[in-house]
Amino acid sequence: MTALIEAPEVPVPDSNGFPPGYFVIRSIACNRNWDVSGDSVEDGTDVILHPEKEPSLVESRRNPDANNQVFYVDTSGALCSRSSGHALDIEGNRVVLRHRRPVSLPYPNSYSHPLPRFKYSPESGQITVEFSCDPAYLPPPAPHSAWQDKVYLLTSVPKRRPRNFLDDASEFLTMNVASPISTIFGAPRISNATPEAVAQVDIDLRENEVIEEERAETEEADDSTDKDRDLRMLRLDKATQNTVGSAARNRRRWEIIQLRNADRRTGPI
């Protein structure tokens, strides 16, 4: 009689905090979903934030046209888009689709490199990005370890409505009437530098490093009528990553909503 040989148990791949199967990723701050822009399958296509296209979470009821808002973690641990099957990568500070590429030398480089790991924390609601090499992909002999002292977080970016006549009139009155009067009575002069003026100052910081810590109060508004918002990666010092206001902290929080094969039971069995 032939003895049965048990097959070795295959470990379940790590889903990096995301649920198994398919899911959508929703911004807590702006209530928009991750969305592969234009439902494109091209390499380097941006992942943006867009209003929900399909409210049903039951697979059989969903419109397949909304699959560009659905993601999954594959067996290698890569976060992927359902509509194209391509993995996600970081390009600069943008989340993009990435086609599989051959190895090119010197490895790694901006064209050919290991895919980053996107990791979700249910406790904080944050999505971090973990790299196995310097994401700046500096050519040798430039490599250094400073990148390992950073935390890489994903955030939504607020979008203000365009300035109008009332905004300009209010700024004019503040600068030319209210400020001089307050100075006469001994109050200190208040700086009225606009975000546009501040942007002209030559500060040696990357845009995505300033995006939260230096955001002016006027830039916190997210009142644009545009449907889309930007999804960006922040590069932060580990020691100061939490020294932000509640609005900025909320922009870093995400809700992961798993798709289902059937309706949930709502009554007794």
UniProtKB/TrEMBL annotation:
Chain intervals with Acidic residues compositional bias: 210-223
Stored InterPro entries: Ricin_B-like_lectins (IPR035992)
Region (Disordered): 210-229
Protein name according to UniProt: Uncharacterized protein
Organism: Schizophyllum commune (strain H4-8 / FGSC 9210) (Split gill fungus)
